[in-house]
């Protein structure tokens, strides 16, 4: 970038026709014009901001914001309703040879008896939950078409705990003393070798499971024993195998494949 020492005073008194300007003069002119636009662009949002701040308030928020929030809530409500369920299939359609894909975070052996699901909570001790604890909750099964972003899909049968029920039982996901949800859930393997971030509405979708069974059998190691995520509204990449810990957060949790160039949400 050239140094800009031009002030209005340095411009020629009478504006010559473009043809008479040297290339350098033309560049200066354009730079000044660009600056003027830049300044104007800065002023407009400020005036809008001022307008927003003098609008009537509702629950201490300017009403215009509140209206946007209400619209978002409506979107979320329809999202949670059963209108957006992934299609399901009869049990006979489920694959017997279930495809295995990806072993990041699964390369070391784990002691399944010692394993606990760790739930990190703000300003509280982490919760340690055993598989037996989870199995005291009702089991939910799903037979649906699992889709990998690499281009294959397969009808698969999984069983486990409904994630929204799990969240309710352990009172997770909402900010302390409020009804506001944290916008994201993070999950990672015990060794931290694979990790995903998921928007809370998708995590709370009625078909999202913490799965401990596949085809009515305990999960095998390559499929993520002892516990994995099954989230039918997302591509395979988000279906973390061998969950070590879970936490809700305000910031987008790190995501293994998003860090390698995939879209963060990779939804279906
Ligand atoms: N821990 C872990 N979970 C993972 C992966 C991985 O590499 N490590 N790969 C993901 C991808 S890309 C897919 S398609 C599915 C595959 O699950 P499957 O091996 O049970 O078919 O797991 C997902 N979860
Ligand atoms: Mo995948």
TrEMBL record:
The keyword Transmembrane helix applies. The keyword Transmembrane applies. Gene3D superfamilies: Oxidoreductase, molybdopterin-binding domain. The chain crosses the membrane at residues 34-52. Residues 11-21 have a biased composition (Basic and acidic residues). Keywords: Membrane, Transmembrane, Transmembrane helix. Residues 1-25 are annotated as: Disordered. InterPro entries: OxRdtase_Mopterin-bd_dom, OxRdtase_Mopterin-bd_sf. Residues 109-257 form the Oxidoreductase molybdopterin-binding domain. PANTHER family: PROTEIN-METHIONINE-SULFOXIDE REDUCTASE (PTHR43032). This is Molybdopterin-dependent oxidoreductase.
């Amino acid at each position: 970038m050239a140094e800009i020492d031009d002030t209005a005073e340095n411009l020629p008194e009478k504006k010559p026709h473009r043809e008479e300007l040297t290339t350098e003069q033309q560049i200066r002119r354009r730079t000044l014009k660009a600056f003027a636009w830049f300044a104007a662009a800065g002023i407009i949002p400020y005036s809008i901001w001022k307008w927003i701040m003098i609008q009537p308030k509702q629950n201490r928020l300017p009403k215009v914001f509140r209206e946007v929030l209400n619209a978002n809530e409506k979107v979320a409500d329809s999202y949670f309703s059963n209108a957006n369920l992934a299609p399901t299939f009869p049990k006979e359609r489920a694959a017997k040879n279930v495809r295995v894909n990806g072993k990041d975070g699964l390369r070391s052996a784990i002691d399944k008896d010692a394993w606990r699901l760790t739930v990190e909570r703000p300003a509280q001790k982490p919760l340690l939950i055993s598989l037996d604890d989870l199995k005291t909750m009702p089991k939910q099964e799903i037979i649906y078409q699992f889709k990998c972003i690499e281009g294959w899909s397969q009808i698969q049968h999984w069983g486990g705990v409904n994630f929204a029920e799990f969240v309710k039982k352990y009172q997770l996901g909402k900010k302390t003393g409020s009804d506001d949800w944290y916008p994201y859930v993070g999950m990672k393997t015990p060794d931290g070798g694979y990790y995903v971030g998921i928007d809370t509405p998708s995590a709370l979708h009625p078909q999202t499971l913490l799965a401990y069974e596949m085809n009515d059998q305990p999960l095998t190691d390559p499929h993520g024993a002892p516990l994995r995520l099954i989230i039918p509204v997302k591509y395979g990449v988000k279906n973390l195998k061998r969950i070590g810990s879970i936490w809700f957060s305000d910031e987008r949790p790190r995501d293994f494949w998003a860090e390698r160039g995939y879209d963060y949400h990779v939804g279906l």
